[in-house]
Design a protein that fits this description.
The complex is a heterotrimer of chains A (450), B (294) and C (313).
Chain A: H1 19-24, H2 29-35, E1 45-50, H3 60-75, E2 79-84, H4 87-91, H5 95-101, E3 108-111, H6 113-121, H7 136-139, E4 149-150, E5 153-154, E6 157-158, E7 162-169, H8 170-175, H9 187-197, E8 203-206, H10 213-225, E9 231-232, E10 235-236, H11 241-255, E11 280-286, H12 288-296, E12 302-305, E13 317-320, E14 323-326, H13 333-345, H14 349-362, H15 370-378, H16 385-394, E15 398-400, H17 406-420, H18 426-441
Parallel strand pairs in A: 1-2, 1-3, 8-11, 13-15
Antiparallel strand pairs in A: 3-14, 4-5, 6-14, 7-11, 7-12, 7-13, 9-10
Helix pairs in contact in A: 3-14, 10-11, 10-17, 11-17, 11-18, 13-14, 14-15, 17-18
Chain B: H1 29-57, H2 76-83, H3 87-118, H4 124-133, H5 139-152, H6 159-167, H7 170-181, H8 186-193, H9 198-209, H10 211-226, H11 230-235, H12 244-254, H13 259-291
Helix pairs in contact in B: 1-13, 2-13, 3-6, 3-7, 3-10, 3-12, 4-7, 10-13, 12-13
Chain C: H1 19-54, E1 57-59, E2 65-67, H2 71-77, H3 80-110, H4 118-130, H5 133-143, H6 150-154, H7 169-197, H8 201-209, H9 214-225, H10 227-243, H11 249-254, H12 266-276, H13 280-304
Antiparallel strand pairs in C: 1-2
Helix pairs in contact in C: 1-13, 2-13, 3-7, 3-10, 4-7, 7-10, 12-13
The chains are: A alpha/beta (450), B mainly alpha (294), C mainly alpha (313).
Chain lengths: 450, 294, 313
């Protein structure tokens, strides 16, 4: 490992050792088979792993996955077989990693920004650019493809954009004699209002506490608001005033006792299990919560407001979301790429409607494509209520969820955990994380860290 | 490499024997009573979490966190996990894996133990020592290399992978060997006179005689494999191969808000364990009495 | 402790036999040994050696191997979180081993003598040990939910109502230790009961005749005679707490290593490095160091205890 810092270098690494050299090295058995390709299954039968459908419990998201694959299978010789993997196993577990390690990764799968670089650097993702219809790239809203692109080539197609806001319980506000005009805009205001909303049985606010990609994802906006970041020009820029401020803000919610140390149910993204049951009065969550609340607790009265910012900070939120990707070493990558491109990027009327249904009927997301958003608005979506707020005032403040490699993610995660939960000083935590990131960047080679 | 050998249960060298008559002494009735009461109190406290599990599994939705008895008893939670979640599949997978591992392990271990205890050959001490030394190695320690070996042998994401690596376990060999050492030497002599070969001797004489030891080991192995989590978690990604512990841990994420479902699943997963344990407990004690292990 | 008695083969006492028969016997022995010998070799011994080889490579989980020499070991030196993980395991061992020892011994003494329902009491005390660690993790998570869990509510009169047992870095490790003790004390009780039942009643009766009180009988008769059992309990709980399943399964279900890495044990950290981040080589390097450490500790213990004789008699 003598390569200098190559944060921006984006040659996809190839195995340095050949198979024969490895065998020669006497590693034998394990390494040999580890390198060998996966079995020669039917190239006309593609597996599509996702955590939506066909699920054992009926849902609109499951229906969408079924209808899309059914439609494809009716018109194509190469069949796509969707396979449902429980969300917890897919998101937090090692299911996907295990399959790829075993050389039996799915042909098509869903990938998050957090995993993107690892898979891309590992050579697991197929370049989808040649398969995209004319004009499709331009149709994607600004920035939507950036975190899925390496060297100008698109390696995954986003299906949605999921911005973060704060949801609040209208009744809790009334009980605390707070009016709509009291909705906090700054961190300080947020802490004050949170304090007023806290009582014996209810916390004022809820931010994620469980370590993981999700916690980092929801914390990044606070880092960006003050102009902070993690990596620039192959060096860590994490040790900054902005990072210290954002770490301090979350720490303060714990210090004042206005936020719990553990969320209920599925975590801080799960509004029905927390906000709606009166566990907290304000909760940071994503646009998906609109659909969750509507289907699970339709009577619950809530509102949303943009993430609070520091004095002098800029309004920004994090746009998460998953993407379709194709296994470059799959059984029939070309056909798989054609399917993905057809499912998400078709520019004909049917294709736009397919994407529209995912973003408005099956789930609530901001559509990543301009044409799709227009089609949705024509159908009356995003024209009223909280979804309109998302489309008009939140969308302009979007920044894509970063694609930090695991080492960078983990360093930041450790800093968040240490300040938020152990109450350690933000300065020390930021410095340590920055050192760890710099140390990692010394030997990093792969796609640029955005 | 099996049931993790450092995990406490599998290394239990002995099991509870009823106290011997000699240690039963007359004590002042008062002290005796106080001791019994304290013991009962601690025992009930110990199982309180399990009682709570049982209660919550039968509580209607929304009452999971309410104290005391359910407002009414409901089967809905159990019905949900058995119908809406592929729980029967999980149970079946676990049952297949546990039973097959147990049967094969007992066969292989008793064969090895027989060779190491009753047959003379050069290097037997060395083999025994090497095998016993593997008892130090636990699954979490060799997880990563074992995973890659399993991958090399095509043992990822299939039943063979769930079963084969879990069979081998020096503890079972060791325990059975101790048991066989206590067989009288006349055993072989008699068999030799009958012109019995070693395989037949093993199959017709040794195995039947080892029933008590095998019974107690089978309880240990079954429980360990039924409760296994780490290995199945790591090597399977096909949901059709999910064993009960893995399936349950995925309930945690999926129905996290609905503790009634998670606990109903836990209850179903625990029932076979408790049944085997309660039934097996008698076997365990029985084997101790007759085996001369003591 | 009979299971751990001497390692001599009974067959050694047999009379001499013919060369032909010896050959037959040797061949049979190896045939009988083959399945287990091959299995242990492939699934235990080779992985240990393989770990060493792997630790010299950068393995990314996508089939790419790259030789990097000792880089993985260098990296351990500058990995603050590995230090934290070692710290967590040390704290866990220091709390868990003595506590479960004390509980196990105490319970064994309590249920040694017969009283109405003693068998039931023993069964109930041992029951948690028969459960899976996944169920245990899920169950305790439920009992300890912030503000609403039944045990959290019971803590209110003691000023613990607002404590987040699994979410507060100060509480998470002690909570994890207590759950582990609850899980394993019944097993240790059984070990001690077996040891107690080996004690000759006459010793105790003699002590009683001499007017020895309960404490003196324990101190001068029971405790010395329990020596081998105690040693065995200590060793097994030490190994189990460092590398046993309780160091992984419980952590995975209860806390995923959090909060603030306070429950991230070494084995959990190894798992995370390999299966969450795809650093199989680095994980193997940590494995190698862990195995080295275990070998050294075990050797030291055997030395200190005079050859590691664990016999009861």
């Amino acid at each position: 490992m003598t390569t200098p810092a190559t944060g921006q270098q984006s040659t996809s690494p190839r195995p340095v050792l050949t198979r024969r050299a490895l065998l020669g090295a006497g590693l034998g058995l394990g390494a040999a088979a580890a390198l060998s390709a996966c079995g020669s299954d039917d190239p006309n039968d593609l597996s599509f792993w996702n955590f939506y459908g066909p699920s054992p419990t009926p849902s609109t998201t499951s229906d969408w996955f079924k209808s899309v694959t059914d439609e494809w299978n009716r018109n194509n010789d190469v069949k796509v077989r969707p396979r449902f993997i429980a969300g917890s196993a897919y998101l937090n577990g090692n299911t996907l990693q295990t399959a790829f390690s075993a050389g039996s990764g799915p042909d098509i799968f869903l990938i998050s920004p957090g995993d993107f670089l690892r898979y891309q650097n590992g050579g697991a993702l197929l370049d989808l650019t040649p398969y995209l219809p004319e004009g499709a790239r331009e149709d994607y809203v600004k920035g939507a493809l950036d975190t899925r692109t390496v060297d100008g080539k698109v390696y995954a197609l986003p299906m949605e954009i999921e911005p973060l806001v704060v949801y609040y319980d209208k009744r809790a506000f009334e009980q605390a004699h707070l009016a709509e005009s009291d909705l906090p805009r700054t961190w300080d205001q947020f802490l004050d209002v949170g304090t007023k909303l806290t009582n014996r049985n209810r916390f004022g606010a809820l931010f994620e506490t469980l370590p993981g990609y999700y916690q980092n994802f929801v914390w990044y906006p606070f880092l960006w608001q003050g102009g902070g970041g993690a990596v620039a020009d192959g060096k860590s820029i994490f040790d900054s005033e902005a990072a210290r401020g954002a770490l301090g803000f979350w720490r303060e919610t714990q210090r004042r006792g206005i936020a719990p140390k553990a969320a209920l149910g599925g975590g801080s993204g799960d509004t029905p299990s927390n906000l709606a049951v009166g566990y907290c009065a304000m909760q940071q969550s994503g646009i998906w919560a609109v659909a969750d609340l509507k289907t699970q607790v339709p009577k619950f009265e809530y509102g949303i407001f943009p993430l609070p910012i520091p004095e002098g900070g800029k309004q920004v939120t994090d746009g998460g979301g998953w993407a379709f990707a194709v296994n470059a070493r799959g059984k029939n990558p070309e056909a798989a790429a054609r399917f993905v491109s057809w499912a998400l990027a078709s520019t004909d009327a049917a294709g736009i409607d397919r994407a529209r249904r995912w973003n408005t009927v099956a789930k609530t997301n901001l559509p990543p494509r301009t044409s799709v958003r227009k089609a949705a608005e024509a159908k009356g979506d995003f024209t009223s209520g909280v979804l309109k707020t998302f489309a008009t005032s939140i969308a302009p403040t979007l920044r894509s969820e970063p694609r930090y490699p695991p080492e960078v993610y983990k360093a930041i995660s450790d800093a968040i955990q240490s300040t938020q939960l152990s109450g350690n000083a933000p300065a020390g935590a930021a410095r340590q994380a920055s050192d760890v990131i710099d140390n990692f960047l010394l030997t990093y080679r792969g796609g640029s860290i955005l | 490499m099996p049931v993790d050998t450092t995990e406490s249960r599998t290394t239990a060298p002995t099991t509870p024997a009823p106290p011997r008559r000699a240690t039963r002494r007359k004590r002042p009735a008062g002290g005796q009573l106080a001791r019994a009461l304290v013991a009962w109190a601690i025992a009930l406290l110990t199982v309180f979490p399990l009682v709570w599990l049982l209660l919550t599994a039968f509580k209607p939705e929304g009452e999971s966190f309410s104290g005391g008895w359910p407002s009414h008893w409901t089967w809905d939670n159990l019905k949900f996990v058995l119908t809406e979640v592929p729980f029967p599949r999980y149970l079946l997978n676990s049952a297949i894996v546990s039973v097959v591992v147990t049967v094969l392990a007992l066969l292989f271990h008793s064969m090895a133990a027989y060779a190491l205890s009753r047959l003379r050959f050069r290097g037997s001490g060395l083999v025994l020592g090497a095998m016993v030394s593997t008892m130090l190695v636990s699954l979490p320690v060799i997880l990563v290399p074992l995973f890659l070996i399993a991958k090399a042998l095509g043992l990822l994401d299939n039943f063979a992978g769930l079963i084969v690596p879990m069979i081998f376990n020096a503890f079972g060999i060791f325990l059975l060997r101790q048991y066989y050492l206590n067989f009288p030497t006349e055993l072989e002599d008699a068999a030799q006179l009958d012109g019995c070969g070693y395989p037949r001797l093993f199959w017709h004489v040794v195995l039947p005689l080892s029933r008590p030891a095998l019974a107690s080991l089978s309880v240990l192995f079954f429980l360990a494999n039924w409760n296994a989590f780490l290995w199945p978690l790591v090597i399977t990604s096909n949901p059709d191969l999910a064993v009960v512990q893995v399936g349950m841990s995925s309930l945690q994420g999926q129905y996290a808000s609905a503790y009634n479902y998670v606990l109903a699943g836990s209850l179903i997963a625990v029932i076979p364990t408790i049944l085997v344990f309660l039934l097996g407990q008698r076997w365990l004690i029985e084997s101790m009495k007759s085996s001369g292990l003591k | 402790m009979a299971a751990l008695t001497s390692i001599t083969t009974k067959a050694a006492g047999k009379p001499a036999m013919s060369a032909e028969r010896r050959k037959r016997e040797t061949r049979a022995a190896w045939l009988f040994l083959a399945p287990d010998a091959i299995g242990l070799l492939v699934f235990v011994a080779i992985p240990m050696v393989f770990a060493l080889a792997l630790s010299l490579f950068d393995v990314d989980g996508f089939g790419n191997y790259r030789w990097i020499g000792l880089d993985n070991f260098h990296r351990m030196l500058s990995d603050p979180m590995l230090g934290r993980a070692i710290g967590v395991t040390v704290k866990y061992v220091v709390l868990f081993v003595p506590l479960s020892f004390a509980f196990g011994l105490g319970l064994a003494l309590l249920v040694w003598n017969k009283f109405p329902g003693v068998g039931m009491v023993r069964t109930l005390l041992f029951l948690p040990n028969a459960l899976s660690l996944v169920v245990i993790g899920l169950l305790w998570q439920f009992l300890l939910v912030d503000k609403q869990g039944v045990l959290t509510k019971m803590g209110r009169p003691f000023g613990l109502g607002d404590v987040s047992f699994l979410g507060d870095p100060k509480w998470a490790l002690p909570t994890y230790v207590l759950i582990s003790v609850w899980y394993s004390m019944g097993y240790q009780m059984l070990l001690f009961l077996a040891g107690l039942n080996d004690i000759d009643g006459e010793h105790l009766d003699a002590a009683r005749v001499d007017g020895a009180g309960a404490w003196q009988r324990f101190r001068h008769v029971i405790w010395p005679l329990l020596g081998p059992t105690s040693f065995f309990v200590l060793i097994t709980s030490l190994v189990a707490s460092v590398t046993g399943l309780q160091a992984f399964d419980l952590v995975y279900v209860l806390t995923k290593g959090g909060p603030d890495n306070q429950t991230s044990t070494i084995v959990f950290y190894i798992y995370q490095q390999a299966f969450s981040f795809g650093h199989f080589g680095y994980a193997a390097a940590i494995t190698v160091m862990l195995v080295l450490f275990l070998v050294i500790v075990t050797a030291a213990l055997f030395k200190v205890t005079g050859g590691g004789r664990l016999h009861a008699r």
